[in-house]
Amino acid sequence: xxxxxxxxxxxxxxxxxxxxxxxxxxxxxxxxxxxxxxxxxxxxxxxxxxxxxxxxxxxxxxxxxxxxxxxxxxxxxxxxxxxxxxxxxxxxxxxxxxxxxxxxxxxxxxxxxxxxxxxxxxxxxxxxxxxxxxxxxxxxxxxxxxxxxxxxxxxxxxxxxxxxxxxxxxxxxxxxxxxxxxx
Length: 183
Known about the structure:
Layout: H1 6-17, H2 22-29, H3 33-46, H4 63-75, H5 81-87, H6 98-107, E1 111-113, H7 123-138, H8 144-147, E2 169-171
Antiparallel strand pairs: 1-2
């Protein structure tokens, strides 16, 4: 069931005051009857239909600061979250953590990913890649004797107890080969 917005709550109360029963209002608003009943009950008890205060730590940044964080990371894609947290002060001039910066960037759709290292793919690169794929299709029918003359290698890095020192780029999905995201 969808949650009612402030406008929908007032609309539902208007329908109730117009004389519609709770069941018809709930069908009209596409919510449970109990929700409409409790909405009316809350209005009689507290004289308001707005949300009650809820627990949780208040946000340490304003919406304007969140937009500035996103803008800074869009201008400098390789800026780290810890460097950004050192530059930004939250409400009441308090320090914000790097995790706060990561959460704010994540909610705006930016993710920290390893950058594509190399030239930006051109039409010539795409053509060469297609040639490689054609080569692979031609050699798909090789037998074991022919494949024995080929050497395959695989390299993996594992970093257990310290930071790996890799640079990350803040980008949205589909921006991997964008000029400011390529190293």
